[in-house]
Every structure is written in C-alpha cells, then in structure tokens.
C-alpha cells in the first residue's frame, strides 16, 4: 500500500482512502445487463514443412504508446457503465516453460533456414518465433492471468468494448482478440466481489475455446493457459491510471501537469510561524508557511506617510509577534 501511495504522490494524483464497504456499494450501482470479456484469440498456423507442420499461435499485446483519454471519454458518455481490469499473479509450470523454449528453438531454426531444406526460410515461422521468444525470455519475470471486463447495457457495452479493443490495437501492430459474452449470474459482482477475478478467469479459460485444436491430439495441454497469461509489460498497456490531458474532455479534473519536482525547506512545511495556505501538490493537506526571521529579512512595507503602514503590519502580523 505504501508503494502505491508513493507512486500516486509522485505523479501528483490526489487520493482518499475508502472502505471496502463503500466500494462494494458503488459497484452495485454499475449496470450489468450486458457483460463482455476481451481475450486473446488462439489459432493454428500451417507452416507447410516436415519439421513443424503446424504451430499453435497467439499474439502479444504490443506497446501502443496510447494514453487512456479515449477510454475515459467513452465512460464519461455512458454513466453507470464500467471497465474492469483484473490481474492475477501467476507463474509458468515446468512443462509450459519447456514448450516455450522448444518452440522458440524450432521456429528460430525455420525462420533462419535449415540446411536440410536448402536454407529456405519461412516468414510465418519467423513471425511466430518472435512471440515465443518474447515469452520464453519473460518466463522468470512477473506474469499474470488477466480479465478485461466491460459492464453496460445492450447499447453501451458494444460501444465501450470497441473503444477498449482499439486501445490495445494499432494499425501497424494488430493483436488478434475476441469478445466473450458473460451472463450476469456468471460474474455476480454484487455478491461475489472478493473472489470475482479468480471465478471469472476460470469461466473464461474454458469458454469458446477452439475444439478443433484441443480435440486434434496434436497440441500439448501445456499451451492451454498461454493466451490467458501476460507479462508486466503487456499489462501496463491497460492496467494503469489515466493521465489527465487536453484530450480528456470530461471526467478527470486536470489541475496541473508537469514532471519537475520542488523541494521545500523543512521549516516552512507544517512549521512556519505564519500560515499561508495548503500545499497544492500534497495529497496529505500539508500547510506551507514562513517564519518570523525570514519575514524580517525579506519583507518590505512601502507607502506614503499616513497611509496606515504600521496599522496594516500590526493587524496582519500582530498575533505571531505577540507569541514570540
């Protein structure tokens, strides 16, 4: 929790602690007559060679460099709807790691060409080799099972879903993904909130899978979870806070944007003899003030004779002077 608070303060977010009871009450107000889940598509690539005739395929979520402004705007346009991003820490089992490494080696060999087939390379193999290489390298790094859920009604849910899909795709780097419709009773956000990520993930893991793949007897069960597992780098494309900008038309009040940090002397934060106001960049309500010694060094009161300089000074700073 402290790490989260430090990250929020560093990015100049304002936050308040809320109880779980308050949060569950808010969640009950979310429209859930239509619930959609976004998952990666699985498939089979025909490589047309004897060494590896077929390859199990799925895509990785690419770095799109897109902010979440469009997603914030579409949610603002549809009150009582929501998008839920859920991550479940996971790890690859031994057989899954072995299959990733084995496929990476075979696809790399085919992509570069082999002597047995006259050093002919396969473009399809090279494309899939990049995916397997990525996950093989990341196998010992943080990994997550994921749920991307869109809550709404029959009209709003498809519109929000399209925006979420576009958030994770670019024309140059498309990701094959599909939507799965869930029944409200399968999600049970109002009564099953605490175990919801695990329960929904179990449903998605078996829903609308390609029966031709898993009934063929060609592919190992070690591939079964791979499309539903992502790296921390992939998760950062959607599991992050929206940053207010000029492209956010509503929903997020943007007070100030800047990367520069300011350091204040200890004796002026919550310690000054004369309080000036609340520090805007602080989420804890820290007060900023000045000491009488600093005031005596730097303050100059100017005015014509008889204009009330002494009266002004005594009325404004009389109390702090009396305390000293």
In short, what is this structure?
This protein is of the alpha+beta class. The chain has helices at 2-10, 20-28, 69-77, 94-112, 123-137, 156-167, 184-187, 196-206, 211-214, 232-235, 292-298, 309-323, and strands spanning 34-40, 43-46, 54-57, 82-90, 143-152, 177-182, 229-231, 274-278, 287-290. It starts with a helix and ends with a helix.
Describe this structure in words.
The protein contains twelve helices and nine strands. It is of the alpha+beta class. The protein has two domains: 17-236, no CATH class; 265-308, no CATH class. Strands 1, 4, 5, 6 and 7 form a five-stranded antiparallel β-sheet that branches. Strands 2-3 form a two-stranded antiparallel sheet. Helix 3 (69-77) packs antiparallel against helix 6 (156-167). It is elongated. The chain starts with a helix and ends with a helix.
How would you summarize the topology of this molecule?
Elements: H1 2-10, H2 20-28, E1 34-40, E2 43-46, E3 54-57, H3 69-77, E4 82-90, H4 94-112, H5 123-137, E5 143-152, H6 156-167, E6 177-182, H7 184-187, H8 196-206, H9 211-214, E7 229-231, H10 232-235, E8 274-278, E9 287-290, H11 292-298, H12 309-323
Antiparallel strand pairs: 1-5, 1-6, 2-3, 4-5, 5-7, 8-9
Helix pairs in contact: 3-6, 4-5
């Amino acid at each position: 929790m402290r790490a989260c608070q430090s990250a929020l303060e560093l990015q100049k977010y304002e936050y308040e602690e809320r109880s779980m009871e308050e949060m569950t009450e808010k969640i009950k107000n979310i429209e859930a007559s239509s619930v959609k889940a976004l998952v990666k598509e699985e498939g089979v690539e025909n490589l047309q060679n004897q060494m590896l005739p077929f390859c199990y395929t799925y895509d990785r979520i690419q770095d799109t460099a897109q902010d979440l402004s469009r997603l914030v705007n579409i949610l603002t346009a549809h009150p009582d709807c929501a998008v839920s991003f859920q991550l479940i820490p996971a790890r690859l089992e031994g057989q899954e790691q072995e299959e990733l490494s084995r496929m990476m080696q075979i696809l790399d060999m085919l992509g570069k060409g082999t002597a047995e087939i006259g050093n002919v390379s396969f473009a399809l193999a090279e494309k899939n080799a990049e995916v397997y290489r990525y996950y093989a390298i990341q196998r010992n790094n943080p990994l997550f099972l994921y749920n991307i859920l869109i809550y709404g009604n029959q009209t709003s849910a498809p519109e929000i879903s399209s925006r979420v899909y576009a958030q994770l795709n670019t024309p140059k780097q498309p990701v094959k993904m599909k939507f799965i419709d869930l029944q409200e009773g399968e999600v049970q956000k109002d009564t099953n909130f605490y175990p919801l990520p695990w329960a929904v993930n179990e449903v998605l893991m078996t829903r609308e899978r390609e029966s031709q793949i898993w009934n063929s007897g060609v592919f190992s069960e070690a591939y079964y979870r791979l499309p539903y597992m992502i790296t921390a780098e992939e998760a950062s494309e959607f599991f992050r806070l929206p940053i207010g900008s000029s492209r956010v038309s509503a929903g997020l009040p943007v007070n100030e944007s800047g990367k520069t940090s300011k350091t204040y002397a200890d004796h002026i934060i919550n310690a000054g003899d004369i309080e000036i106001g609340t520090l805007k960049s602080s989420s804890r309500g820290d007060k900023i003030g000045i000491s009488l010694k600093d005031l005596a060094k730097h303050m100059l009161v100017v005015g014509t004779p008889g204009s009330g300089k002494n009266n002004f000074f005594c009325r404004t700073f009389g109390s702090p002077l009396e305390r000293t």
